[in-house]
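Here is a complete protein record:
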Amino acid sequence: MATSSTAATATKGPNLKVLPFDPHGDRLDLGKRWEKWFERFERDLKYNGCDPSKTPEIAKMALLIYAGTEVEDLHDTLPEPSRPEGTEEENWTVYEQSKTN
């Protein structure tokens, strides 16, 4: 059984035009540059038929792929989000009770 040594190209998912995010440069405007890049990413994603609110898992994968390897490496170092205690209603009730006690 012979195997091919050529790399496979991904053909699934949105084909976005947005360039990878550059996390280098002036740290003072990093947040603004990220917001601007993210707006472009979301616009491109929606234009290509992927609604982030309807397909959040695909949108997250696309974000990590198109943001670039440095952003993906940073994401991989973050801890897994934990489930918040109780529901929002329960948390609100506890919060309100703590204000009156």
Summary: The radius of gyration is 20 Å.
